[in-house]
């Protein structure tokens, strides 16, 4: 499954809004944003800077970015905007006003990216390639010459906004997802009872659910994956295989709502986890395991080749040499098993307690 | 998507007590975290972000065992069909251990990048070691980062090894203290570029790679079989010991003598299980044309005198040495240099004189040659080159075999107001990169020596001048390969300078007319040479003929003889490839 620029945009916007970043400018093709301290910590890889801020208590200066979701269209529009004489404005934060179709800032940001040697523009000139002219930051290119590739350095100050193309497969998108997981994996949520509940006399009964989004990785020399979002009721022990559907359109809130009570749990968390794992195991047992058999067959074949090869060599008379060969043989056998041996590993992407209104 | 689980090298045989036919493991760290959050009353994750994370996982989920996933993660790259095919084969037929042996310029790096990306996307690989010649380290780092979005890091200090994807030079890696560190790591994937350097199983390179712990492994080389079938056996044994049986089996089944295989069809079948070799003529890869201009030049009278003087001297020495070729190499060099520039001759002569005992009779003769050298004031070739460059008014790369000629040309071009840079094997990698950048940007001319041939990509330039010619056709092909490769959008124009009435003229004739190598886009040069060189290398045969010929006539007939057999082989190979297609 791949994502269209619109879908990518939705993901990024979701993240930026959820982390309370301040959006400076937005169009269907791009967003210019000043990161919130929280998002900055997760995305800009500046542990020393944040360490400095914490220790000295200085007000943090977060970075700003222009994320472009559809680089081709965006560049096209930016070029058009530049060609139009009206959009010729001095560059600077204060002067950004919307111009036909695309905000003027886009033109400036686009131009900056053009002169930016270390930029992440895919398909652009190689990093470290000094363009024939232009105001490339020389430090960038010297570093790039030494290291081969340098991730773009942060730029601080008004107007210093780095452009970045965020498409499916780009590092930034991957980083946003893993940042989201980092801050969203461990949950405790309550169903929003709505405003009417506060007025009613009786408190509503809530049932606690333990739910985990499992990632199942079936690997041999190849690999397949599945996701299973399963929930178990800690009162009744009932399993809900598609917990996402159960949540459906319920509004969830992190705060304990008024006038509700939570039913006592019959199961401990560990017991709940056992149930979930038991259920998932039984479900996995129903799958087709031809792939594993085939992998074992490949493994057997490879091992037999290795065995035959070393059998001859192990007839070596010199004990010292023989030991060296034996060691090599064992290493090769281990490597082969490592490469082919089928196995399934299950881990949790997100997990938590969901308190849902009893029905 | 997110790497949640890395499969390490197993310590013991896995035990299987579950209800599944496959060992199953649950990671339960999450439960501790959940319990500790409950105890402390937080911190709790954000539901919106949580859903975002799940969507991310969903979009990156590998839903099928046998389908390339990497392409949807790569936006700026459009690989050629044969490159995708190769990646597909490596994954699904070879299980990640393969020799990638495409001919020069077909994009082995891209193929390796695709395979690596695929394994990374699938989460089957996290720790990667890439060993390449020092001059290619930065290029690999760049390509992986910019084309594939793979965060590879160049090895600079001992701590660099801790990165998950490291590119390093083989020479550094195999030395202490690095060796120790690397042997203690285990690598999900090992990639080795220019792997033909691993053909000798006694070499430190070989032993080192053999000891590295690796799951998947790619060996890249354009010349898997240069001379010796035994070398091919070694390379494959490094990758998959036993694939061709043991050394004895291999020798009895496939080898007549070390350069000549038997049961070729069967051997090819065995090879295709571990090796992929795409050739230029095959598939829909469209290369632009090669246009060859041979520029005949007449030596000035002074140059001619020098040429004759050196030739006579070299021949006399050979007679005196009783036809022993190995002691004659510096003299052969002298003979070749005199076709290039007087500066080159000068340096070699002076070095020779220094080595002679003070009372050697040769001394006088050599001093005489030095005197003749002084009379030469101009360089016909350099003048012509200047004229050519002025005429084309585009970027051009000038190749010479000799550092002295390179220096001379640099000076000469600068004096005439041309912007030029040099490129040679002795430069460190930073300087090489810098020179390439300069050539791409400001300079019009790059003057490169042979050693600089390997690993530079100059698709943006489509003129090249062979100021002098190597006598080894493979090296000529390597020169051309710098410019004429994937990504070249123009026809490549190759200028060959040759001075009339010199040995050079004959060599050019041989390369051009007999092998037709300058226009040969079909490839197969390696096969032709392999067959020709069953007894002796082409270069050596040429030396012999040159030294032994008493007259021009004899020289010509000797060369013609070589030419005939080469051209026969060329036709043979061509017919075969047509029959195969």
Automatic annotation (TrEMBL), chain A:
InterPro entries: YqhG (IPR024562). Residues 116-126 have a biased composition (Gly residues). It comes from the Bacteria. Residues 97-115 have a biased composition (Low complexity). Residues 80-137 are annotated as: Disordered. This is Uncharacterized protein. The lineage of its organism: Bacteria, Bacillati, Bacillota, Bacilli, Bacillales.
UniProtKB/TrEMBL annotation, chain B:
Transmembrane segments: none annotated. It holds the Pfam family Helicase_C. Keywords: ATP-binding, Helicase, Hydrolase, Nucleotide-binding. SMART domains: DEXDc (SM00487), HELICc (SM00490). InterPro entries: DEXDc_RapA, Helicase_ATP-bd, Helicase_C-like, P-loop_NTPase, SNF2-like_sf, SNF2/RAD54-like_C, SNF2_N. The keyword Cell division does not apply. Residues 89-242 form the Helicase ATP-binding domain. Residues 381-533 form the Helicase C-terminal domain. GO terms for molecular function: helicase activity. This is ATP-dependent helicase. It comes from Paenibacillus helianthi.
């Amino acid at each position: 499954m791949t994502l269209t620029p619109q879908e990518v945009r939705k993901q990024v916007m979701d993240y930026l809004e959820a982390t309370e970043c301040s959006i400076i400018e937005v169009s269907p093709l791009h967003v210019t944003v000043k990161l919130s301290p929280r998002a900055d910590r997760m995305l800009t890889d500046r542990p020393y800077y944040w360490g400095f801020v914490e220790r000295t208590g200085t007000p943090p200066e977060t970075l700003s970015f222009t994320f472009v979701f559809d680089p081709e269209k965006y560049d096209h529009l930016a070029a058009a905007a530049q060609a139009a004489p009206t959009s010729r404005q001095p560059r600077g934060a204060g002067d950004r006003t919307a111009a036909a179709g695309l905000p003027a800032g886009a033109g400036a940001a686009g131009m900056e990216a053009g002169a930016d040697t270390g930029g992440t523009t895919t398909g652009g000139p190689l990093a470290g390639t000094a363009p024939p002219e232009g105001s490339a930051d020389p430090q960038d290119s010297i570093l790039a010459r030494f290291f081969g590739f340098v991730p773009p350095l942060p730029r601080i100050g008004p107007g210093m906004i780095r452009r970045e193309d965020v498409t499916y497969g780009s590092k930034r998108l991957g980083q946003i997802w893993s940042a989201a997981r980092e801050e969203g994996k461990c949950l405790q949520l309550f169903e929003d009872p709505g405003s009417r509940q506060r007025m009613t006399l009786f408190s509503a009964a809530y049932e606690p659910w333990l739910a985990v989004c499992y990632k199942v990785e079936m690997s041999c020399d190849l690999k397949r994956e599945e996701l299973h979002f399963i929930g178990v009721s800690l009162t009744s022990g009932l399993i809900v295989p598609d917990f996402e559907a159960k949540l459906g359109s319920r509004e969830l809130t992190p705060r304990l709502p008024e006038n509700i009570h939570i039913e006592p749990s019959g199961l401990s968390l560990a017991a709940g986890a056992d149930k979930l794992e038991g259920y998932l195991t039984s479900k996995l047992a129903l799958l087709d395991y031809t792939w594993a058999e085939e992998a074992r067959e490949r493994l057997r074949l490879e091992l037999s080749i290795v065995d035959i090869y070393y059998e001859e060599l192990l007839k070596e008379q010199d004990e010292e040499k023989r030991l060296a060969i034996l060691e090599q043989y064992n290493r090769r056998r281990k490597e082969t098993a490592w490469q082919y041996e089928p196995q399934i590993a299950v881990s949790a992407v997100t997990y938590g307690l969901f308190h849902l209104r009893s029905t | 998507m997110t790497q949640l689980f890395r499969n390490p090298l197993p310590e013991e045989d896995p035990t299987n007590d579950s209800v599944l036919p496959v060992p199953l493991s649950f990671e339960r760290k999450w439960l501790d975290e959940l319990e500790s959050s409950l105890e402390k009353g937080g911190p709790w994750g954000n539901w919106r972000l949580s859903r975002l994370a799940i969507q991310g996982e969903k979009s990156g989920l590998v839903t099928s065992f046998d389908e390339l996933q990497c392409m949807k993660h790569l936006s700026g790259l459009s690989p050629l069909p044969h490159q995708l095919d190769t990646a597909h084969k490596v994954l699904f037929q070879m299980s990640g251990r393969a020799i990638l042996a495409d001919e020069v310029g077909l994009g082995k790096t891209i193929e390796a990048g695709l395979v690596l990306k695929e394994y990374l996307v699938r989460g089957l690989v996290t720790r990667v070691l890439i060993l390449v010649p020092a001059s290619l380290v930065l290029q690999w780092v760049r390509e992986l980062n910019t084309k594939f979005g793979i965060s590879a890091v160049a090895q600079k200090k001992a701590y660099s090894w801790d990165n998950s994807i490291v590119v390093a030079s083989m020479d550094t890696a195999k030395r202490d203290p690095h060796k120790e560190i690397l042997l203690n790591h285990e690598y999900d994937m090992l990639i080795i570029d220019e792997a033909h350097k691993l053909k000798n199983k006694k070499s430190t390179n070989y032993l080192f790679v053999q000891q590295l712990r690796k799951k998947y492994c790619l060996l890249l080389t354009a010349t898997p079989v240069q001379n010796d079938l035994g070398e091919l056996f070694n390379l494959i044994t490094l990758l998959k010991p036993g694939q061709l049986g043991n050394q004895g089996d291999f020798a009895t089944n496939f080898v007549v003598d070390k350069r000549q295989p038997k049961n070729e069809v069967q051997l090819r079948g065995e090879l295709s299980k571990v090796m992929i070799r795409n050739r230029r003529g095959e598939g829909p890869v469209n290369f632009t044309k090669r246009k060859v201009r041979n520029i005949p030049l007449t030596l000035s009278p002074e140059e001619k005198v020098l040429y004759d003087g050196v030739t006579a001297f070299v021949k006399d020495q050979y007679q005196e040495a009783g036809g022993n070729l190995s002691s004659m190499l510096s003299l052969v060099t002298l003979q070749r240099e005199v076709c290039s520039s007087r500066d080159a001759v000068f340096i070699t002569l002076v070095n020779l004189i220094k080595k002679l005992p003070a009372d050697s009779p040769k001394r006088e003769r050599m001093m005489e040659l030095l005197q003749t050298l002084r009379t030469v004031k101009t360089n016909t070739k350099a003048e012509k080159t200047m004229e050519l460059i002025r005429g084309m008014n585009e970027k051009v790369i000038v190749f010479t075999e000799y550092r002295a000629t390179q220096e001379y040309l640099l000076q000469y071009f600068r004096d005439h107001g041309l912007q030029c840079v040099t490129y040679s094997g002795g430069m460190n990698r930073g300087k090489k990169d810098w020179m390439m950048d300069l050539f791409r940007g400001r300079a019009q001319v790059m003057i490169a020596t042979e050693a600089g041939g390997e690993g530079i990509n100059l698709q943006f330039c489509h003129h090249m001048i062979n100021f002098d010619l190597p006598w080894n056709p493979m090296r000529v092909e390597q020169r051309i390969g710098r410019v004429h490769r994937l990504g070249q959008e123009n026809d490549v124009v190759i200028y060959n300078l040759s001075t009339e009435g010199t040995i050079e003229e004959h060599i050019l004739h041989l390369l051009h007319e007999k092998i037709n190598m300058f226009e040969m886009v079909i490839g197969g040069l390696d096969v032709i040479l392999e067959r020709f060189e069953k007894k002796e290398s082409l270069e050596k045969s040429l030396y012999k003929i040159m030294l032994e010929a008493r007259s021009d006539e004899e020289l010509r007939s000797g060369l013609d003889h070589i030419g005939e057999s080469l051209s026969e082989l060329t036709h043979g190979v061509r017919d075969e490839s047509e029959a195969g297609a």
